Amino acid sequence: MKTKLMVVGSVLALLLCGATIFACAQGPGGEGFGGPGHGHMGFLASALNLTDAQKAQVKTIMQANKASMKTVMQQMAQNRAAMLAATANGAYDPVRIQSLAAQRAQLEATMIVNRESIRHQIYTQVLTADQQAKAEQLRTQEINRINERLQKMATGTEAAPTANQ
How many domains does the chain have? Predict the structure, then answer.
């Protein structure tokens, strides 16, 4: 069960990154959801060899979705602040913490749906068939890396990740 949750969590993390990977399609130093100069996103835009016209299309899609994403990100920040306040000085109110955790889960679900919608738009409206094939190849490689890591963790040959990893 724990391994299954880890797989689901890893896949969700991968999916969360999916849209933001394309967000920096204008290259290093550009503005995406992640802010200026996110190297991994620029790498993927480069790996997919997006044209200037495609980069402009991605930017248009991102701008069209910016307001809804910003609202959810603000709500997530407010939730985090509320959680910190609720647990200040060693306080522990399980009912309040459960409520905030449920709210956070809903916000994260909303964020995933929004990002996947953006990712879908980019994938279907911007990428060529060759770029889609390359994106799927990169996705498969990432899934394989996740599965390898999970297998190592299950066999005890790799320490569980810490908060610093």
Answer: 1
The answer as to whether 53 is a domain residue is: yes
Low-confidence ranges of the chain (pLDDT < 70): 1-42, 158-165
- Torsion 146-132-23-62 (CA) sign: negative
Q: Give me the domain span that covers residue 130.
A: 2-155
Q: Contacts for 66-73 with beta carbons within 8 Å, 24 or more apart?
A: 68/114, 69/33, 69/111, 69/114, 69/115, 69/118, 72/107, 72/110, 72/111, 72/114, 73/111
Instruction: Say how far apart CA 55 and CA 16 lie, in whole Å.
Output: 20
Token pair, residue 31, equals 């503005």
What ranges in the chain are assigned the alpha helix state H?
2-23, 39-47, 52-86, 94-125, 129-155
